[in-house]
């Protein structure tokens, strides 16, 4: 690859991050973000690291750098959330953080030392508020496999034998089954606070995580350990505040719940401000108004954080089925108890676990080849990334692998493949 310096180095770093499961299109603001967050040595190491998870031994073999130097740089990168360290099979494995969910969130969750949070917030805000950059790159082709899914407020579900809610769809069940819980600062609210756009009274400390994610955030000073009882209190507070609950988009081993408001959450703003309803997967439920009981108070219209409910001329509110997340925030505010969540006509398919979500998201975003041929220093891998990547991007191939017919066999094959 040769020795890179200056803007060329950060341009290569931008390409590396853009080739993750979620894209990070290059512009001057991204360059400023990367130059602010990464030292030149850190940037060079990340550029040379494999795609996906890798042990220190593999990173050493690929980079030909001294192990002590690698470990020192990795320690700094992990403390900043720019590289993820995950304990697997009695050792840490490392992965380059994507921009979302990753660099943005873990940067704005940091609380240690003298931090330049205000400057970071301005840079991220400028980058994320350009709908033609991040949003279009990740959602502009109708992509549907996203990192987050909506969880309904359980008390807003219609009491009916036809309404079934599974454990992974219940925030209460995620809390009850957690080995460890943690709470930290919401990255979106922290960003909006510094740029003067936080219009709500919601506290900053609302981001909740579980198990391995909680371990990581606690270890790096980005969250504090809390009891299940405090997690339940946070959940009750979010219900009272009318916040949308969003978890990671998996059925097994969910690692976090975000407590989102319409004025701060960048994902909800992606829907209401920029028109990308597919940025968050809906729950298996949808809001429905009982017109016989509705008193036209329009509380649900005001409560909906993404403007999915409208009303005019004293008529009953109308729910936009193409936008409704199935969160239940509207039903929490209904004064006549005439609005409830009911089952959607067709159940939503969620990835089984994080492995499946990353594979499907990478396939949809056109970056799966990077996980298959992950060594950035080998010419053969570069050739195969180009060749296989072009094949996987063919619309018929992508539709077939993402469709119901081949998806299960495709994912089973990927699970059997060596790392």
Automatic annotation (TrEMBL):
Pfam family, one: Fer4
Gene3D superfamilies: 3.30.70.20
SUPFAM superfamilies, per the entry: 4Fe-4S ferredoxins (SSF54862)
UniProt keyword annotation of Protease present: no
Domain of life, source organism: Bacteria
GO MF: iron-sulfur cluster binding; metal ion binding
Protein name in the entry: 4Fe-4S ferredoxin
Provenance organism: candidate division GN15 bacterium
């Amino acid at each position: 690859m040769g020795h890179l310096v200056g803007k060329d180095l950060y341009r290569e770093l931008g390409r590396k991050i853009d080739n993750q499961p979620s894209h990070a299109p290059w512009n001057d603001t991204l360059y400023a973000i990367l130059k602010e967050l990464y030292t030149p040595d850190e940037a060079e190491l990340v550029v040379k690291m494999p795609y996906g998870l890798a042990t220190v031994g593999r990173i050493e073999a690929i980079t030909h750098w001294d192990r002590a130097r690698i470990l020192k740089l990795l320690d700094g990168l992990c403390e900043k959330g720019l590289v993820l360290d995950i304990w697997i099979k009695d050792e840490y494995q490392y992965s380059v953080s994507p921009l979302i969910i990753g660099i943005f969130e873990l940067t704005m969750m940091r609380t240690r030392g003298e931090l330049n949070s205000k400057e970071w917030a301005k840079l991220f805000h400028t980058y994320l508020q350009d709908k033609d950059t991040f949003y279009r790159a990740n959602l502009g082709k109708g992509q549907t496999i996203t990192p987050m899914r909506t969880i309904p407020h359980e008390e807003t579900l219609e009491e009916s034998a036809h309404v079934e809610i599974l454990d992974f769809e219940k925030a209460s069940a995620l809390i009850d089954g957690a080995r460890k819980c943690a709470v930290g600062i919401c990255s979106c609210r922290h960003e909006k606070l510094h740029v003067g756009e936080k219009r709500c009274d919601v506290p900053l400390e609302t981001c909740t995580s579980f198990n391995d994610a909680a371990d990581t955030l606690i270890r790096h000073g980005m969250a504090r350990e809390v009891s299940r009882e405090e997690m339940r209190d946070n959940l009750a507070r979010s219900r009272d505040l009318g916040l949308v609950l969003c978890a990671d988009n998996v059925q097994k081993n969910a690692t976090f719940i975000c407590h989102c408001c319409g004025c701060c959450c960048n994902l909800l703003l992606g829907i209401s401000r920029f028109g990308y309803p597919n940025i968050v997967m809906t729950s298996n439920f949808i809001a429905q108004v009982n017109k016989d009981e509705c008193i036209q108070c329009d509380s649900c219209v005001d409560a909906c954080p993404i403007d999915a409910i409208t009303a005019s001329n004293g008529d009953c509110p109308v729910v936009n089925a193409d936008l409704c997340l199935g969160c239940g925030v509207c039903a929490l505010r209904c004064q006549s108890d005439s609005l409830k969540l009911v089952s959607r006509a067709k159940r939503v398919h969620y990835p089984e676990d994080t492995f499946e979500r990353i594979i499907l998201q990478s396939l949809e975003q056109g970056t799966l080849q990077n996980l298959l041929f992950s060594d950035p220093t080998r010419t053969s891998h570069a050739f195969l990334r180009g060749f296989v990547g072009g094949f996987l991007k063919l619309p018929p191939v992508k539709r077939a692998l993402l469709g119901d017919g081949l998806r299960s066999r495709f994912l089973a094959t990927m699970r059997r493949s060596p790392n």
